[in-house]
Amino acid sequence: xxxxxLAVDDLRVRVREWCATHIPTDWRQQxxxxxxxxxxxxxxxxxxxxxxxxxxxxHLPKEWGGGFSIPEQxxxxxxxxxxxxxRNALFHxxxxxxxxxxxxxxxxxxxxxxxxxxxxxxxxxxxxxxPNAGSDLASLQTRAVRDGDHYVVNGQKVWTSWAMEADxxxxxxxxxxxxxxxxxxxxxxxxxxxxxxxxRQIKQATGSADFCEVFxxxxxxxxxxxxxAENDGWAVAQGTLAxxxxxxxxxxxxxxxxxxxxxxxxxxxxxxxxxxxxxxxDTAIREMFAERYAESEVLRRLINEMIDDxxxxxxxxxxxxxxxxxxxxxxAKLMREITELQGPNAQLDQPLLxxxxxxxxxxxxxxxxxxxxxxxxxxxxxxRNVIGERMxxxxx
Length: 396
Description:
By secondary structure, the protein is of the alpha+beta class. It has helices at residues 8-22, 27-31, 36-53, 70-82, 92-105, 108-120, 233-268, 283-312, 317-342, 363-375, 380-390, and strands spanning 124-127, 143-147, 150-158, 168-174, 185-191, 197-202, 211-222, 226-227.
């Protein structure tokens, strides 16, 4: 099991060796065309592998299975990406969204209750977006009415990843309907096995159905499960979104740099243009790949600057917004260009996949999936407002 405190170079060697012996070399082939349950079984197995190695949540404090310094976290992310490790998709919300929020905003009793489950394999989902409150999250209408020592919740959430497998849900609700829309919200933790909860999976264009609608009909949530003060849920939710953007983007960028661009170039070597000319003999196409790789290097340098800010205690909210926009739009652009290069073959032999993210190697599917990153973690249009306000000092 990995422990913090190793010299960075030694840690890199050890993580690389661990990856070589623990990551199945054919895991992508195994998961292509897998059923939903087969995918879940695989992701639970992979989460257990990371947990046993101490690599599930290196960003958390040591008493909660982490304790690694930021340089150590960078090494771990780099080596997992270099090895093409599966994404930690099933436990993503628990580890990257919920855990930092619980540690920052919850009571000691709540931390003990929920963190123990997170580290032992509980699956969480995030009940924020609604049919009429996505980018404008503060317009949410799901209501929680207090009745003694519990709330009664009614409403609907949508785009709730992995809700069908979740044990718990972080739930943003309106508890004071007369307050201004950024006030009067509370941040609850709902038991997904409670009576009154209905989950409906949403079939996506990629073939997967890990997004869901969740309906709450008189669902009882204990007041003890309110994170932070009642009616102060907006502030707690902003911490959740900031944690998601800052921590996860490093892993995504390393995968883009080390895996996706390289795989695209390798496959393109076997493709031909309409006239029969090999794709990579076209000067413009070679320039395109060079530009995308250069942009990925710029992205990594931006991340390095953000990491330095975090180490120095500087607010990185604006920087994380820039990085998320840069990353998601680079990803979508690259996937579109590769799909166009592959031509009609991109639309042939493309199985509908129960996949955990992109990087499937089926470029049409990965292209369609890439659009989600422009929305997830805060839509790019909203994040441009964050940049204007926090970094440029523009008025609201």
